[in-house]
Amino acid sequence: MNLAIPLPLDVLRYAALLARISGFLVLAPVTGSRLVPVRWRVLLAVATSVALAAALPTHWQVPRPAGTVGLPFLAVLLGSELLVGIMVSLFVHILFEVFAFAGHVMGINMGFAFAQQVDPTLEQQRSIMSVFMTQLLTVVFVTAG
After folding, report:
1. Distance CA 109, CA 103 (A)
2. In whole angstroms, what is the distance from residue 59 CA to residue 106 CA?
3. Rounded to whole angstroms, how far apart are CA atoms 73 and 3?
4. Are 103 and 127 in contact (CB under 8 A)?
5. For residue 24, what is the DSSP state?
């Protein structure tokens, strides 16, 4: 079955951007939490995509297929953009874990190793200094944009 869709390149460009941003926002430490409702995550992904669509550089183009867009081309395009967003989110998760581990090591040296608290960002029980470092990185992450 070949599905031929007559889509303009602007729609493909926006769909690729939305796939990349939604892949990031669904799994990111701050917005991917269970505390954030799914409607807000979807709204944030769409609003961010609309805001960034106008600011995209002209060299960021979707490869132009010959003729109409087929379903395999659309699946590969959106899947690859989704994977890019997931990989960026994985990098941010690793960064958060590095800061949490640094806070844990600092807590051991300070004598706070046995004091535990629930970390709202990562939804796990951690030492106090680990939670402090994670919250500090969250503030920097949100502030930096």
Report:
1. 10
2. 45
3. 10
4. yes
5. H
| Residue 115 near residue 127, CB atoms below 8 Å | yes
Q: Which parts of the chain fold into alpha helices (H)?
A: 9-27, 38-53, 71-110, 128-144
Which residue carries 């490869």 as its tokens? 63
> Side chain identity at 142, as an amino acid letter?
V
39 within 8 A of 26, measured Cβ to Cβ: no
**Can you tell me the distance from the alpha carbon of 8 to that of 64, in angstroms, rounded to the nearest whole number?**
10
The strand pairing partners of 125, in sequence order, are: 118
Q: Which residue is associated with the tokens 């994985």?
A: 90
Q: Six-digit token pair at 33? A: 């939490």
Per-residue pLDDT tens digits for 104-124: 888 878 877 677 776 666 667
* pTM (predicted TM-score): 0.72
Task: Kindly report the length of the chain.
Answer: 145
- Residue 73 sits at φ, ψ, to 5 deg, of -65, -45
| Nearest-5° Cα angle at 15, 87 to 56 | 80
At 84 the pLDDT is 92
